[in-house]
From TrEMBL:
It comes from the Bacteria. This is DNA 3'-5' helicase. Its EC number is 5.6.2.4. One of its GO terms (cellular component) is cytosol. Residues 282-551 form the UvrD-like helicase C-terminal domain. Residues 5-281 form the UvrD-like helicase ATP-binding domain. It holds the Pfam family UvrD-helicase. It comes from Persephonella marina (strain DSM 14350 / EX-H1). PANTHER family: ATP-DEPENDENT DNA HELICASE SRS2 (PTHR11070:SF2), UVRD / RECB / PCRA DNA HELICASE FAMILY MEMBER (PTHR11070). InterPro entries: DExx_box_DNA_helicase_dom_sf (IPR013986), DNA_helicase_UvrD-like_C (IPR014017), DNA_helicase_UvrD/REP (IPR000212), P-loop_NTPase (IPR027417), UvrD-like_ATP-bd (IPR014016).
Length: 696
């Protein structure tokens, strides 16, 4: 049979098995995703199940579109497989057609993380509460926990330390309802509510799908699990694949143990284990196995140790550099060398980091060395302020109930409309903000009235043409509000980048026009966008966080910043669970590599201020150091400390003194502050440095 040709015995068994719910449990690179793809193809080709009766859930949009492509190509399909999607996109589709049943209108708005945090900030302000205690990030995180746990007592638990939390929660929920908006968590729990409260609707959705498949199951949370249970009902029609060793989203409610619970919730579950890795060389696999065997999870015995027939492989290097600057420079030069010596291309490389701030140095080095690179993740395109500003005009024009969009644009550019005026407008609110604005018009001061008039004209125009000509409308808004001028004055340093981003948005909207998608669909996609979405098929090195690298693979991988406090992160030092997760993250990072793997760290790293901190190598390196080729630039470091020792006595340092620093070069002291000195360096400007790092 063509569909299972090339699959190994276990993989083929997983594709062909339909006797009961199926759980494929296996380590990285063993072909789990491949099994899902082939099973979809098998269902369609051999069992003649129509494509739109198969639901396949992936963790990222990118994974979904890759799977769609494969299925389409394999079967020579024209149509888009619309039910290969992420949990969130699936839920949006369900809710768009059923919203009324749970008290929303179908054109509900999706609040992304930033919208939600802003709404919380507004609520905290409204309630006159301490904004230091009730920080939007923290409160949002807690609200997510509450919603994801499907358990109201969680709110009580947090209320011990944050007594006003229930009030904020209530108001936040009111705010969402008022704006006909759902946050990311609502998208999921509202589907659970919908199905639980409406057995007939549930029946309809159950009948819609003959088979359900889920990739990266280890990172599903309780609510997502609940949705699957409801959809499957008492049938057998589900296959999930996952690897508890790669569970890296516990902060979003996943748990490596959940995957083991699958058996309980789906009685009669069959488990198939894969044991052959096709991705990495034996050496890479061997250190991956060592790293994860240090884990404490009870799933450890459940996963078979992977083997590969790609015997041996190239040495794995651990390189210690003097400073983070040297580290980035090394990575850049190494990439160039490998390309020129061995014929690799830029696209074959990925630099993985635990914390996104580590990327700054690497970017600098790549710019200097003229290495094309792409940051995957960071601030997502659709979360960039300038992109959101313009989109908010379109969003508001289409959906004038959207409170956050309204607040974002009503005073952008400044129209002299502050909180007081917004309150006044709100008192006229009946249907939506547009109506409120029109009805309150005569009650506003004459000066503001004129500006509001201009605003209304812009909105009216966009309402008229927005759906047909979104890109033209975005340009129209850009001009009508003098947005370029606004960017130039607000961001004198990087306005050019920002204008380029707005241009990119125009292009994206043109694409919408060509594809026949509606603007509403586009807005929805933009709110659900994720880090990996930005990956372009261009010939460039990818720099990304380990989280964003999930499911991907690269011929050459660098893992940078392997230092205590970075990888593992400082947060994990006092939290065993978190430390376990860091270990799993390291396992994920290593297993992205196919052929070459470099681990790097630096002895000194620039801290928050300007001085360098001495670092400690990551504890994870201990377990694997015997398998690594270790290179260190220790001589340079020793020399450096020699110099430190010969430093003049601190008493000799005074304001006006010319000094030299090993890393920053020449400078002049402008201030002495205890054991530190403020120095203006010729090359890097002002820095505060420990006195004993300076030489006359
Ligand atoms: P991860 O845990 O990282 O998500 P995975 O288990 O999903 O990995 P895949 O991405 O499906 O693994 O496969 C890893 C690599 O191995 C891919 O390049 C895939 O094409 C290849 N591969 C998988 N199975 C086979 C096979 N039977 N023959 C040849 N190559 C295979
Ligand atoms: Mg996979």
């Amino acid at each position: 049979m063509e569909v299972i040709e090339g699959l190994n015995e276990k993989q083929a068994e997983a594709v062909l098995y339909f006797g009961s719910p199926l759980l494929v449990l296996a380590g990285a690179g063993s072909g789990k995703t491949k099994v899902i793809t082939h099973k979809i193809i098998f269902l369609i080709k051999e069992l003649e199940i129509p494509l739109d009766r198969i639901l396949a859930i992936t963790f990222t949009n990118k994974a979904a579109s890759e799977m769609k492509e494969r299925v389409k190509n394999y079967l020579g399909l024209e149509e888009e497989p619309q039910w290969i999607s992420t949990f969130h996109s699936f839920c949006v589709k369900v809710l768009r057609s059923e919203a009324e049943s749970i008290g929303y209108s179908r054109d509900f708005i999706i609040y992304d993380e930033e919208d939600s945090k802003k709404a919380i900030k507004d609520v905290v302000k409204e309630l006159n509460l301490n904004s230091d205690l009730y920080k939007p990030e923290r409160v949002k995180h807690i609200f997510s926990n509450i919603k994801q746990s499907l358990d109201d007592t969680v709110l009580e638990f947090y209320s011990f330390t944050m007594p006003h939390l229930p009030e904020i929660y209530k108001k936040y929920e009111e705010h969402l309802a008022f704006s006909n908006a759902m946050d990311f968590d609502d998208l999921l729990i509202n589907v659970v509510k919908l199905f639980n409260q409406n057995p007939d609707i549930l029946k309809r959705w159950q009948n819609r799908f003959d088979y359900i498949l889920v990739d990266e199951y280890q990172d599903t949370n309780k609510v997502q699990h609940q949705i699957l249970k409801l959809l499957v009902g008492d049938r057998d029609c589900i296959t999930v694949v996952g690897d508890p060793q790669q569970c890296i989203y516990t902060w979003r409610g996943a748990n490596p143990e959940n995957i083991l619970e699958f058996e309980k919730d789906f009685p009669g579950t069959k488990i198939i284990k894969l044991e052959r890795n096709y991705r990495s060389t034996e050496k890479i696999l061997s250190i991956a196995n060592k790293v994860i065997s240090g884990s404490k999870g009870r799933w450890k015995e459940k996963i078979l140790k992977l083997w590969t027939d790609r015997k041996g492989g190239e040495d794995i290097y651990l390189i210690r550099l003097d400073t983070d600057k040297h580290e980035s420079g090394f990575i850049g030069k190494m990439i160039k060398k490998i390309i020129s010596d061995e014929g690799y291309s830029y696209r074959d490389f990925a630099v993985l980091i635990r914390m996104s701030y580590v990327s700054r140095n690497i970017e600098e080095a790549f710019i200097n060395l003229k290495i094309p690179y792409q940051i995957v993740g960071g601030v997502k395109f659709f979360e960039r302020a300038e992109v959101k500003d313009i989109l908010a005009y379109l969003r508001f024009a289409l959906l004038p109930k959207d409170t956050q969009a309204f607040k974002r644009i009503i005073n952008l550019p400044s129209r002299g409309i502050g909180d007081k005026t917004i309150e006044k407008i709100r008192s006229f609110y009946e249907r939506d903000w547009l109506q409120a604005l029109e009805d309150s018009y005569n009650h506003l001061s004459p000066k503001i009235r004129m500006r509001v008039q201009e605003f209304l004209e812009i909105i009216e125009t966009v309402r008229k043409y927005g759906n047909e000509k979104p890109s033209q409308m975005a340009k129209y808004v850009f001009d009508a509000i003098n947005y370029e001028e606004y960017l130039v004055s607000k961001y004198p340093k990087d306005y050019e980048d920002r204008i380029a981003n707005v241009n990119e948005l125009f292009n994206a909207l043109k694409e919408v026009e060509r594809s026949g998608k509606s603007l509403l669909e586009f807005l929805e996609e933009s709110s659900l966008s994720q880090a990996q979405d930005s990956i372009q098929e261009e010939n460039s090195v990818k720099i990304m966080t380990v989280h964003a690298s999930k499911g991907l693979e690269f011929p050459v991988v660098f893992i940078a910043g392997l230092e205590e406090g970075i990888f593992p992160s400082g947060r994990s030092f006092e939290d065993i669970e978190q430390m376990e997760e860091e270990r799993r993250l390291f396992y994920v990072a290593i297993t992205r590599a196919k052929e070459k793997l470099f681990l790097t760290y630096s002895k000194y790293r620039a801290g928050y201020g300007s001085h360098y901190n001495e670092t400690k190598p990551s504890r994870f390196l201990q377990d694997i150091k015997d398998d690594l080729k270790i290179i260190s630039t220790q001589r340079a470091v020793r020399k450096r400390s020699d110099k430190v020792n010969t430093t003049v006595s601190s008493d000799d340092l005074k304001v006006g003194q010319a000094v030299k620093h090993d890393i920053f070069g020449k400078g002049v002291i402008t201030k002495i502050d205890g054991n530190k000195a403020v120095v203006i360096f010729e090359k890097v400007g002002e820095k505060t440095i420990r006195k004993d790092f300076l030489k006359i």
